[in-house]
Amino acid sequence: MGLGARTKVLLGVREEVVGALTDKVGAADFGVGDTELRGALVTSGHRRLAHELLCDISDYHERLILRPLPQSTLLASFNFRSNESSIAFEQQNFRYFPRSLGQILQHAHTKELHLRFSVGRWDAESWGQRPWHGAREGGNGVELWAWIEADNDDEAFTRWQTLVNSLSGLFCASLNFIDATRTIRPVMAFEPEGDHRNASNLHLLHGTLPHEVVCTENLTPFLKLLPCKGKAGISSLLDGHKLFDASFQTMAIDVRPVCDEQGQDCLLEMDQSVDMVLDVVRSKRPQDNPIPRPPPIEEIQCDSSKYYNAEDTCYPFNSGAEPSWSLKEIFGRPLKGACPLTEAGEGSETLCINTPPERTIQVETEGQFAESRTSSDTVRCYKLPVGSNFDLVLPEQQMTTGLVLPEPPLSASRSINGHGQERGSAQSVIKNPSSTDAVEFVYLESLPWFMRPYLHTLRAHVDTTTENPVKETFYRPAVDRQRGSHLEIRMVIPPASTLTLTYDFEKAILRYTEYPPDANRGFDAAPAVIRILSPNRSGDRKGIYLRTTPLLLSLPTPDFSMPYNVIILTSTVMALGFGNIFNLLVRRFVGVDEAPQNGGFKGVLQDKIARLTGRFKKS
Amino acid sequence: MATPEDANASLKTEVSEIASVHPNQSPKSGVSSAKPPQESTRSLWLRRTVILSFWAVAVLLGLPVWWKTTAIYRSDLPLQAMSDWAEGKIGKPVFPLRIAVEAPILPQDTHSLIQTTQHVLDDLNEFSAHQLRLMPVDPPLTANASQHVVVDGTRNSGDDKDTTLLIRLIPVETGETPRSYLQPYSPTLHVYYSPSHISSVSSTASPLAAFIARELHDIFAEEQAQLAYLLSTTSGEHIAKVHSLPQETAAELQRRSTRVLKYAPTYHLTFSLFTPTSTPSAWDIEAALRQYMAPLLESFSAISNFTIDTQVQLYATLSPSFPPPEYDENAKAWTLRNEDLSGFINAAEWPLSPSIADGPTVNFALYVPEQSQSPLLVKDSGASSWLVPQWGGVAILNPPSTEQDAAPLSALSKEALAPAMQTFSNQLISLLGLPQTPASLPLRLSTLTRVRAASLVFSASSTLGALAQVYQKLPSIPVPDTVAKSVDLALQHLQQACDELREGRFQGALEHARIADGEAEKAFFERSMVGQVYFPDEHKVAVYLPLLGPIAVPLLMAALKEIKNEVAAFKARRAAS
Prior knowledge:
heterodimer; A: alpha+beta; Immunoglobulin-like; 4 domains; eleven-stranded mixed β-sheet; 26 strands; 30% strand; globular; B: alpha/beta; Collagenase (Catalytic Domain); five-stranded mixed β-sheet; 14 helices; flat; GPI transamidase component GPI16 (chain A); PIG-T (chain A); transmembrane (chain A); membrane (chain A)
């Protein structure tokens, strides 16, 4: 690589960083127009590709972007990207790419992989647009989709089984429960992100586990995949206690091949990201004393406008100030300097914070660091010191301006209507907030087999027009105990309208052994996935997605002691019948006066007692 | 609630009232004195037939149906053959090695030389199962039709791959004779002799014959010891027949056999670079493997296949329970105590999980210590590498000593990896069980082939024996037909393996032994056999009792009562007569 190439690389990196940041932190509200932004992003995408190809050795990037959100919450987006050249990958020489995951991908012939662990709900009304346009998040629980190379559908499914079973072991998750009933083959909702010109016969399979509880045991293997393993760099902030205490968190792993124009030199790129929304007040509570207690009355600033203020009661004064916080308080552990593997230059600015320019930020560190400001000073990025702790301290501050949150392109909610244990109906309400653009999107439902939708009851209705919004429908009905329903609808919502999609369904009755141990809790139905086709503002191949919340479906639940009761009852009836008939057949019937006097058990007993007493008397 | 006495009393009064209402009834039918009329024989026999038929249905129909429906399917296994194999009663492996002799002399002389040498060799040999058979081969240059003599029909050509060793006799004029040279990369022994030796080949005291015999015996001494050890440890039958090994040889073989990996057709080699800091983060492993590992693996390819994967793991710290290294002033080095080495590998944190495909994984860990703790050595011995039995090897790579403030090494070059790679090669050789002598690599590999074939035969036999025992001792486990099929296959291939061994085709024997062992393992670890080993009887009782209890009691009572009556009647009849 000559000198010229090196400069190009650095240039590419700079462009990329600026592009990514503008993309991420709402440049839309700081004077950069939509078209301009898109243009910048497209170039940055190309440059990035070029940069990746120029660096034919494997490399590693990481970045944490912090962004205060309304209601004293904080969005922390961690992103780790490691590349491995596809030649080294084929030869199983792993450097930054984890060997365990690499071997699984090779064994299962998986060309592209997307794995998501999510908890909580993104509150789009208060928090605005989703991080990464929703492309790096999954439905509640675990979601997995992959492009698998195989000659036919059966082989693809066998390899999919291998994949889910191995990933299950790697991530300590119940991924092995993704069987044929939870697997679908989406048609419109997903597009490959990577270059698959060299691969033929790719099969897309998608599985969800909405019931899975994501917890610390999934974070530990996630961290082990990173080259710096949570011991240095931004990953040292990731702590299970805080991560799973967040209002919303999603962990994503994306593996995709990236090739140059000719499709010759390929890289395998692994993207690991964690997005979480922390409640600042809640996170600041000390871990040894997590129960919130009121501070002493002297420390509270009282709202004197309230009439009920007294000596010992007080309504706290809400100044509307931004709360104070520091990295160490929020994440519960210090940031242990930079991961030395990240490249020099712009790529080494691994920590960025997006706040209004007047927000005071103090840096506490003993090492060398560098700060740079971009996007009209709304983004401050820091080059972290190697080997010494780093902390950002934001004092409490009264803010006059705030960041304008970009509005999400669509908002969606889904619920179950109806009553009783036999039937129900599902309703999805999708709103287009834009006053100018019609939005075209794909709506994907993957329903469990025991929730049987009636397709003839499917109604899509837009409140502003009578035109049918449904453009295309793909439906694959469920087969009991073999596969679930798969419904994909392409629809268009006119500007400033609300679309209501309803369908009725019937609840199946399960077999005794098919109920889980907590059968009365209900059964989860996976969130619906919405992919926005146009207008596409993200500008890359990741796409724009949003997901609804999962549904909790209550099915008729039997009494689980039933089988033994049935055995007992049936046996009693049979024994009664048998006893009667048998006695009628074998007993001899005589008159009452003819029956032996001392017959039966009582007679025998009396006889015995008499004999015993007689013997005692004798002796 | 009224007590039974009350109820009886009221009944009695009622009956007496009835009696008083009908005073014209005969006084015989008084309450206390009434007797039921004698039962007619017909009704008696009818009742007995009814009881008997109920019992007949229960016993003849119910029991067999119950037995049939709850029986566990157990297919027949050739138990006798299986335990015979396990006890070594059949299929004793023998190892006849063919050794070709190529001599530029007259065929008659060659013949007599071979006969004499064979004689001396047989005298030297103490282990009957392992025999060296000498046979002549035509010297390529002098071969022509007139000299073509068939000896015993076992004439051999030089390129036969079943020939273990080729002895090439080369006449020389100078130097000490006879002397020998074993080719390191081909199974050939060059024996240099002076032509004067040939004259006396027919006599048993021929120095050339004695020399060749002794050389051969020395070359195959370790193989014999290994095979003898194998026979003595795996099967009780053989102990008596095997000559007793010297104590230290046995101990050495025992030590070596415990570290050897179980045989598998494919091994996965994982080379990992561990460092507690962030450097070095790269190594030129691909080139290093190509240069230092590939030739070795190539030569093993006849026995096993190998896949290789490598990884770099930074921030791989030692386990917190591992005692930290101590600084030794004398050696100017950080030292690890010998007894702590077993805890060196931090299994909880280091990603050394086995490879995903079939076959065992051999791990080779290269540990680069921190700059501040370098050099790191093992106490006393000063070694920087050790072998973990049946798991792999560990090597510590101390970066070349530089000034304290120098920047740490960021990448390891191929040259820097060379010592570690040589250590790993040696460790792999001992993990695979390659014998240390003789000097010729092909000979060592062919020895390994024989030892592996024999150990596979023994392992398969003992697995079959264990299966036979399980079959006999646990009557409640189901045995599906696939197990029987696998057992049949295993027995077949065992037999074939032994036949091949007897005929000296060791490669084929290894192949058959491998299949036999695989099938035996498959039969033993059949999943459906494990599933229902324990199905508690309490469950059966809980399910059956509510039905069987109420039905069995009337049946039993009726039968007992009838038998009692019959016995009483029989006694009465005897008393009457």
